[in-house]
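Re: that backbone. Tokens:
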């Protein structure tokens, strides 16, 4: 069974020193691979958190930007690092890889479509056989099952994980769930360590 999920979010691009606001429209084609309601629910919760909290109102920037440390220190927004300029094509690849990794095989993202205002509404489609270019590397955040959107280093660490957000795969008690509410999007999801290196639904069958 497949499910189509349409959503949107806003982001701010940093390209050649310019701050460029953008609006993204996202279409996901999901495949349900089991009938376990708990894992299906957690899968949707994790994807929803990535799209509505981690991506929405975040800063999209090339990971080779020389001002990365300043960007992390001077903004409360979440920061999303890309191995190239944060084009719509790059956003589509990052979403395809990250969403599949955070749901860990409990559901499959078969296709991601992305278009945006700044991209002149041209739609980019990423699926199983798509080339991923500079994203083809090991130990990157888009391959991590946790909700980070940058590589964890000695300079920048994540302030939470899926367990602290109340979205682990194992069932929790009601009391534990009440104490593990998801962070709001206006809470800084990272912590800068001073003194580090300079860079260190529609439903179809």
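Recovered sequence:
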């Amino acid at each position: 069974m497949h499910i189509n999920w349409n959503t949107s979010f806003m982001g701010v691009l940093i390209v050649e020193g310019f701050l460029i606001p953008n609006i993204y429209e996202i279409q996901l084609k999901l495949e349900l691979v089991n009938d376990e309601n708990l894992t299906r629910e957690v899968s949707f919760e994790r994807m929803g958190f990535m799209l509505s909290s981690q991506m929405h109102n975040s800063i999209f920037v090339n990971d080779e930007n020389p001002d990365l440390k300043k960007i992390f220190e001077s903004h409360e927004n979440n920061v999303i690092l890309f191995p190239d300029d944060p084009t719509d094509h790059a956003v589509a690849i990052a979403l395809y890889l990250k969403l599949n990794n955070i749901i860990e095989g409990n559901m499959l993202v078969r296709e991601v479509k992305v278009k945006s205002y700044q991209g002149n509404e041209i739609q980019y489609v990423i699926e199983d056989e798509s080339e991923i270019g500079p994203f083809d590397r090991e130990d990157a955040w888009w391959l991590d099952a946790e909700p980070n959107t940058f590589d964890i280093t000695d300079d920048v660490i994540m302030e939470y994980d899926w367990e602290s957000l109340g979205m682990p795969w194992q069932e929790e008690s009601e009391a534990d769930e009440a104490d593990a509410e998801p962070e709001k999007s206006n809470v800084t999801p990272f912590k800068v360590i001073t003194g580090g290196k300079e860079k260190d639904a529609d439903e179809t069958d």
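The two ends are 5 Å apart (CA to CA). The first strand starts at residue 2 and ends at 15.
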